[in-house]
Every structure is written in C-alpha cells, then in structure tokens.
Design goal:
homodimer, alpha/beta, Aspartate Aminotransferase, domain 2, Aspartate Aminotransferase, domain 1, 7-stranded mixed beta sheet, 3-stranded antiparallel beta sheet, 13 helices, L-serine-pyruvate transaminase activity (chains A, B), SP_NH2Trfase/AEP_transaminase (chains A, B), EC 2.6.1.- (chains A, B), pyridoxal phosphate (chains A, B), Pyridoxal phosphate-dependent aminotransferase (chains A, B)
Chain lengths: ~400, ~400
C-alpha cells in the first residue's frame, strides 16, 4: 500500500484550445465554476435549474419543455437520447458518414436496437434521396443523424427534408448537435427534430460535465410509454423527469458546479444573441478558412457543407500531421488535433468554437501553422496564408 | 420561440452544507475548478490523470491499477461497477437494509441480472450469517453491499467476513463507499473488496461530476472477458480502459475541470493523512452526536454501526421534520436533510463530511437545531445539547 503521494500544486500549461474541444472557456464561466455550491435540492437551485432550462431552449431554438443538462459529458447525453428512444427490437437508422454516426449505431445496438445504415462518404452530408430509400427499405423506428460531424468537418444540410421523410414514416429523429449548438445555425423546432443532444465544451465554451439534451412531446411520449425500462438507470429520462420536472424529486446528485457554468455560458449566448453568434462563427472561421486555403491547403468538405466550428484542413505534402501538431503545441501552447477514424493522418481538425472564435485566435492558428510548415519543410505559401486571414478579418 | 431570456448574474445563497452531500467544498478545490482547461488528450493532462489515479489509490487504500474517476456523479460510478460486473443471467445479491441497496438491485436488474436479496432492517448492517445463508441458497455471481448507508446513517461492520464468504463462493464483491471514502475507515485491499465506487461530493468535499471507482484484477478480468458488451457504451470499462490505461486513446471528453478539482481534493486528503482524516471525522461528528443525544434525540442506528459522516438523528416529538429543516435554512443558511425512503419523516440526515467536519460547523448545527426546536415548540433540552457539544470539542 502506498504512502501519501506527494503531488504538487495544480499548474497545467496555458493552452489556446483550437482543437475539437474543449474550447477556450470564457473567464465568466470559469468564475461560475468556482462559485460555492448549494445543495442539488436547495430551493435556490430550483431557480437555477429553471433558468438553465430556459436558456437551453433559447440556444436550441425550441419550446420543448423537456430540455435539460444531462449529468455527464456529451456522450452521456448522446446515450441518454439513443438509449431512451430505442426499445429492444426497434430498427435504428444511423449514418455512415463519420465517426459519430458509428457511435450512434453502437449505442443503439447496446440499447437492443436493430441497426441499419444509410450511406454517405466521410466528409459529405446524407442525401435526402438516400434517406428516403433507406426508410422505404427498412422502415426504421428511429433515425439518427449528425448535424455537425466533428470527425470530418462536414455539416448536414437539408435537415427539414430529412425530418419530413422520417415523420412520413412515423419515425423519431435524433440529431447530434454536439459541435453545432451555439455556433452553427440550428433550429430544433422549425426543422422538426424530435430529440437533440450536445456537449457544453464545443461552441458553448463551457467545461465538460453537464450536457444539453432536448426532446419534444412525441419523443417524451415514447420514453414514458416504453414497455421495458431503459437499460441504464443513470440515464433513464423517465426518472430524470422526476428531478427536472415539476416534482423536483431526488434521482441523483446533479453536478451543481457544472450547471452553474453551463448557465453562465448560456447567458453569454443570450447576451450576444444566437443569430449573431452563428454569424460570428462563420465570419471568424471564414478568415481561418481563407488563410489555410491561401496557403494551398484545401478543407476536406466542400464549401456547401463547410462547418465553421470544426475545420478539417488537409495535411500538406512534406510533413507528418503529428509533427505539426507537436510543433504548434511546443512553440505556441496551441492545441489543434489530428484526424479521427477514416481521416486519420489526412487532416488537421481545427476548432473555431465559442470563445475561441475570435480574430486573435484564428490569427494565431494561421501564423503558427505557417511557422510550423516553414520549419518542417512543407511546400506551402505561408505568407499568403497570413495575408489572406488578415484581409478577411479587415473586411469584416 | 422565446426571445433571449434575461437571466441575472449567478448569485446563489451562501449555505453551510451539512446534509447528505454535496458537502462544503474547500477553497483550494473551488480554485482548481476555475483553472483554465487543457485538452483531455493534452500530454500535460496525462500527468494529471496519473496523479489523480495515484491519489485515488491512496484514499481507497488499494494498489489496484484500475482506479479512475468516472465521468459523472456517484450514481454513474455505481452503474459502471454494477453494469460491467453483471452479465445477463448472473445472479446478483443485494441488501435490503437501505435506499442504496435497492438502487443496486435496480441497476443489476437493468444490466440483465437476476436479483436476489439478503435482509437486514433499515439502520442495521448485514449479519455475516445471513450473507452466508444467502450464498448457500442462491450461489450469486456478484454480491453488492453498502459500506456507508446514506439513507440510514448505518455503517456495515465485519466487511472482511462478508468478502470471505463471497470469495469462498467465487463471487465478486462490490462495495458502495459513496459516504465513506475519505471520511470513514475503508481498506479496499485489506478487506478483500473487488470493486468499490464513491462520490466526490461527500467526504472528499469536491463538487460532483467525476466519481471514484476502483476494480482489482479479478473484477477487471471479468469485465474484459464478458461474452456480451455492457449495455452502456458511456460506462463500458473495457473502452474506458483505453483512455485511462496505457494507450490514452480517445473514448469521450473527460470532465477536465472536475478531474482538476478531484485531484486537489485528494491532495488535501494526502496532506492530512487518510487515518488522521478518519479520526477527525469520528471526533468532530462525535461532538455532534453528543450534542443531539444530550438534547434527548437518539440516533437511528446503534452505536456499533454509527456512521460519523452521516448522522441519522430522530425527529423529536412536537415538530415536523420539514419545519425544522426550513427553519435552519431560513435563519442560518444551513442545509440539513430529511429522511429518505422508509425513514422519511422519522429522521434528520446531518452530514459531517470532509471540509464540513469541523468544530465550527457542528457547533452551528447543534445551536441552530436548539433554536429551531425552541422556536417550534419541541420538547428537548436545547441548552444541554450545546453544552455537550462544547464539552466534547474541548476534550479533543
């Protein structure tokens, strides 16, 4: 048995987080994290819960009563959505166009679902015609799609068409909005999404730990009329309804500090205005995009599907992705990430999310990349990149 | 659709948290919560993970390599333990002597287990003879017990006897140590516990959000040789092994800030020394116990099973529990809690946990209760209570 370990004071390096998340946290949100706690059943916490739910509805563009933070990271909210809406024997239609579509399929399988797939290449959105074909062939009960694929940097377009197809077949639609909520246009109600989940550490710039989830009445009706309980007690929304609903009954101890932080992060969204925030992400990420394109590096997805919050930038000839990532971390305390799954080694994933979507951050990214490419011997026009980003920012 | 909600600055009341948790958080831990984040795959975070694991092993009194914080609140760690160690068709033996034994049973059922029970009255520990009988009758594969029952204030004694019985029958033992870790004597390795889970917001005085879990090799062997995947992807320990083990592969985004905070809370444990910390809890809670007993209020469990971290104090004649709880909240910003389940209305649950286990806190509790009983007309000797607590603290 060990003696008391001698562990020093917490002093992590000061990073600029421009990977796929966590993104840079606003100082006001960090301050909220350090607020002394009240109990999770305290009368004052009920108000905080109400306010957080109201702010979440605003960010999701929904009137769904059933809109809550799940006590865990984004994958917990994801499994809450999938595990509660998939009953054993249900057919679940999941996309093949990215890493997180595969995760959806895996979670649906564990929930007892029969998983069928609708295909699109990595980096492309689903084609509504393919979704219609998949519905005709498989008659799925639940259809999941990824609005903002963090692995490919592609945005799903034509969302209302997809939800129309699903509803014509009486299926429920689950949207993965982990990398879009608060940064990229998302209209849950108008677009007919029945359930959407997200993470706080992307475009909301909040530390991970309490993760947004919203369900409309159709989705909640299914949850509350299941024949068999969901397989997770922790994520059982019919039980959570007792805590986040009118009753406020004890289920589990809510992550009080993470709710404080999420509330503050969502206040920042409300202060800025959700449309203005979407516009800022597109504008600032556009300057990043202009910069890397001027250096001669393409983005992985086509412009039509470009996801401002997550830029999948092709690795230029002459360098290894890992060397570039290490270089900018070592020289600039700057985090960017490698590709995931099928795109591993082919792209850098550069986030432009929330508090990270600022001119100074994307300027640093382009300058640091330019330096890295120069130092490591990649054949790119570094100076052109910097100029293009500067120009794009000036025009704004 | 709502306009941007106008939600004010976060300003919760300043409570003294002496309920069943969350407990008062040490200022150093609050400060850790507000530390700017690094990425969950940052090389510097690997060191922080290693240190947190080392500190967790120290607090659990274990050498188990597989010792991690689960990304969720205590119930997530609970379901991780139960859901991974219970395969469909396994027989799971759970106790009937408290609220959290019932929760164990419910989670085991959802994992596909056949649940059988071993009985003891609420407020009493399991008798090893009854456990032996239950093993002879049911031959369970997994045996769960609650070391510190937060609903009854009773401590399970004779733990090594229980684990011996289980191991004679080749069963694995899961211990709920939510309200004991870091506050009440707990020796995972010496006592033969195969898996134990806890919460950070009890005797570790850390905000909820990342919850301790430890498994020995026998337990992990079972997890890694399951025939069927666990029903939760999020809590699948074979996948988490990729992140917290040597590989450091991405599974989900760890709650970085909560890990920072847990690390700092565990540093405080290491600085104080785990045995000294157990002794402090017993000493300070003893002064609380002396006070309420001198007022004529019994504790629910017998002295032999008294749990210093959670004092289940009988509600005196002449008052309603809710009126007293509201009174001390209104007049003293002091949180204590009502009974849970079978003891609802019969007891107050008064925590004495971690940073809350200090003379000033228990003195406030006894003084506030004395005032409440006096104001609300309960027939107790309030002055005697205060004197007894004062005496007990002076003797120390």
């Amino acid at each position: 048995m060990t003696d008391a370990p001698d562990v020093g004071e917490l002093s992590p390096p000061q990073r600029t987080l421009m990977g796929p998340g966590p993104s840079p946290v606003h100082p006001r949100v960090l301050k909220a994290m350090s607020t002394p706690l009240v109990g999770h059943l305290d009368p004052s916490f009920v108000d905080i819960m109400d306010e957080t739910q109201e702010l979440l509805r605003y960010a999701f563009r929904t009137d769904n009563e059933w809109t809550i933070p799940v006590s865990g990271t984004g994958s917990a909210a994801m499994e809450a959505a999938i595990g509660n809406l998939t009953e054993p024997g249900d057919t679940f239609l999941a996309p093949t166009n990215g890493y997180f579509g595969d995760r959806m399929a895996e979670m649906a399988r564990r929930a007892g679902g029969e998983v069928v797939r609708v295909d699109a290449p990595w980096g492309e959105p689903l084609d509504p015609a393919d979704v219609a074909d998949a519905f005709a062939e498989h008659q799925p009960d639940v259809f999941g799609f990824v609005h903002a694929e963090t692995s490919t940097g592609a945005k799903q377009t034509n969302v209302p068409e997809l939800t129309d197809i699903a509803h014509e077949h009486d299926a429920l639609v689950i949207a993965d909005t982990v990398t879009s909520l608060g940064g990229v246009e998302l209209r849950v109600d108008e677009w007919g999404i029945d359930a959407a989940y997200s993470g706080p550490q992307k475009c909301l710039s909040c530390p991970p730990g309490a993760s947004p989830l919203t369900l409309n009445d159709d989705a909640m009706d299914k949850v509350l009329s299941r024949e068999e309980d969901p397989r997770s007690w922790y994520l059982d929304l019919s039980l959570l309804e007792g805590y986040w609903g009118d009753e406020r009954a004890y289920h589990h101890t809510a992550p009080v500090s993470n709710v404080y932080a999420l509330r503050e992060a969502l206040r920042l969204v409300a202060e800025e205005g959700i449309e203005a925030r979407w516009e800022r992400h597109e504008r600032v990420a556009g300057a990043l995009k202009a910069g890397v394109e001027a250096m001669g590096l393409g983005l992985n997805p086509e412009d039509d599907y470009w996801l401002p919050s997550l830029n999948a930038v092709r690795v230029p000839a002459g360098v290894e992705d890992g060397d570039v990532i290490d270089y900018v971390l070592d020289h600039y305390d700057l985090e960017i990430a490698s590709g995931l799954g099928a795109l591993e080694g082919d792209v850098f994933r550069i986030g432009c999310m929330g508090h990270g979507a600022r001119p100074e951050n994307v300027t640093l990214v382009v300058a640091a990349l330019a330096d890295a490419f120069d130092a490591l011997g990649a054949d790119v026009d570094a100076a052109a990149g910097l100029a293009a980003t500067r120009e794009a920012l000036r025009e704004q």
